[in-house]
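User: My collaborator sent over this chain with a note saying "see what the structure looks like." That's all I know about it. Can you take a look?
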Amino acid sequence: MPATMNDIARAAGVTRQAVAAALNPKGTSKVSEAMRQRILEIVADLNYIPNQAARHLKGVSNHTIGVYGAPYAQVQEQTYFNELSVAFDRHGYNLVTSYGMNEKASGRAIRELLGKRIDGIIITTQYNPLHDSGLSGLVPSVFSPPARIEGADIYIDHAAGAASAAEYLLEKGCRRGIYVAPIFDRNIFGSPNREKYEGLLRAFKRRNRKLDILIMEECLGQADILIRKIREMAPDVIFCSNDYYAGRLVSALVTAGIRVPEEMKVVGYDGLALCDLCAVPLATVIQPIMKRAEASAKLLLKRIKEQDRRAEPADMALAPYFYPSKSCGAENEMLKIFPLHNTYSSLEMTWNENPYPKDLLTYTREQS
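Assistant: Without extra context I'll predict from the sequence alone. Here is the result:
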């Protein structure tokens, strides 16, 4: 169990008032900076959380959900946080967020969230600092990392998403592919880039076709080196780890005199709205971020209602879906219409939030 303020005071050899002063950055009590740092180190070591959290443990609801993660990191995470906010608002809950860039900072961020008397917490990062800090079981929680991780509740099945794109292209006659990623480590557990590659590789092996891998880091980030290596490898389809790389690659290929999709097909990943805006509209794999947010909110609300603080992992995999377009030689009916209301950063939100002929999105998804 987490320590109390008296425990911190005894460990530091100071009064309880000195601990309170050290924990209050706006306080006026005189505590030396050296003593403040010593107390903060003990706080981290003993997993102390402010007393406000004890009120929650006694059944006092604050109608607040904590979210641990960085909503500014990627467009997908921004969408996820926005949709979480909408979902919880419908049930009268507010969101508070926190994030730490390293182990020590993450522990502090988790304790700060718990200190705000949150009713539940959603962890969105690749690791679970709630467990690492020894604070599991204090409030209901949902672990929704960006890739498949042991103990996860809800996650995106990137291998399935990449495989859906590969199956489409292989069915259309492609025989040799390349997977392009900025960096790649086959030993990183729970890496989205590795999962995408593994999904592609399984699909290619089933058809007895060849798939190579090309790492941008090894090309020094230079377009001319990348294009030279692509020419040497002579693929008929290139899968990129994200849409930004795919969009830049299409431009580099066309500049080098390589026709897309006639000579070489290109597929991105993520489902960013920019895919429809490229000179050669980009085929991509759309992540179901809105569904991830909906599922996360529903599961956490259920656990809050049942006060289930030590639930077994739900292990819910959400499969992305392929969005064919010009860069892979496919017709895209969505290019024939314009969004009538707001514009969004993701294709998923664009075509879910704007009025459109319902059969068009159904048609597009069925092509995968």
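A starting point for your reply to your collaborator: The chain has 14 helices and twelve strands.
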